[in-house]
Amino acid sequence: MFALTKDTLTIMRLVHINVPWKFLPDYIEMVLQYQMNIEIGFAAEELDRVSRSEFKATAALLHQRGCAISLHAPFWDLCPGSLDPLLRQVTSLRLQQFFDIASIFEPIHVVCHTGYDPAHHRGQRQSWLEKSIAVWEPLVERAERSKVHLLLENVWEQDPTFHLELLQAIASPWLGFCLDVGHQNSFSATDLTTWVESLADFLMEVHLHDNDGTADAHLPVGRGNIDFLCLFDLLRSRSIKPTLTLEPHKEEHIHESLAGLHSVFLQLAATGPCFMSWI
After folding, report:
1. pLDDT tens readout for residues 10-48
2. CA 172 to CA 77: how far, in whole Å?
3. Whole-angstrom Cα distance, residue 197 to residue 210?
């Protein structure tokens, strides 16, 4: 188990840490000990094989310890805007199953991928967008009834326009945007400032991990070339106060990312109110 300093413990209180459901049994003691806020990621097959009682027991433990919870939906092979109606049906079913689970955990919000990949779908962009809206609308209605925000994350999208059009088309206060800076840096041809400024009105969560721009490496904050100082300066200038979620792929990266964030916040504090006090 990694060791926390006073500074990194302070930062940990400000963030969520992504933990896939399949790994949660290995880390549940650590999560409960530190009262970690977590974002639980689910794979599709877990929606089929894990019992409701197991989900309920885990949710109860986390809530009893005061751990804030967010959830990440399954995303592999799901295609909300597919030209094949059966694929859209399967996608809708999986996401509806996920919302059934979400009602157990009572998260502050849930994160989904749009499924749009311009390398494959560019030629059918408008049709793909319109078909995907029909999948998202009933899910947004469920989100509103449950009082939980549904956030759409960027992955392969080259620029913010697809998200902007989708969010504006549905136009619900319960639908928002999750900015993944690692995906933006490694997959997008558009700079970070444009992403933040274009989607500022919808931005409710930021996924934090680092890379050098060549691959989605999920390195600790400060290990790659992402300009986190620029990111937080943009958020501060627009008074955007999103949920911050670390996405480490190794346990030892948790402490390094917390320390990296602390360093960024110290630099930010030198130019004005620091993120810790401002949030």
Report:
1. 999 999 999 999 999 999 999 999 999 999 999 999 999
2. 26
3. 21
pLDDT in tens, 109-162: 999 999 999 999 989 999 999 999 999 999 999 999 999 999 999 999 999 999
Q: Taking the CA atoms of 9, 13, 14 and 20 in sequence, report the sign of the dihedral they define.
A: positive
Average confidence (pLDDT) over 216-245: 97
Torsion angles phi and psi, residue 96, rounded to 5: -65, -40
Distance CA 134, CA 154 (A): 19
Give 44-85 pLDDT, tens digit per residue. 999 999 999 999 999 999 999 999 999 999 999 999 999 999
Q: Which residues have CB under 8 Å from 121's CB, separation 6+?
A: 81, 128
Cβ atoms of 180 and 155 within 8 Å: the answer is yes
Q: What is the DSSP string of 93-155?
A: HHHHHHHHHHHHH--SEEEEE----HHHHGGGHHHHHHHHHHHHHHHHHHHHHHT-EEEEEPS
Domain spanning 6-278, CATH architecture? Alpha-Beta Barrel (3.20)
Distance CA 108, CA 258 (A): 22
Instruction: Give me 113's structure tokens.
Output: 């991928």
Contact status, residue 66 vs residue 35, Cβ threshold 8 Å: yes
Average pLDDT, the chain: 95
CA distance 102 to 97: 9
Question: How far is 216 from 210, CA to CA, in rounded Å?
Answer: 8
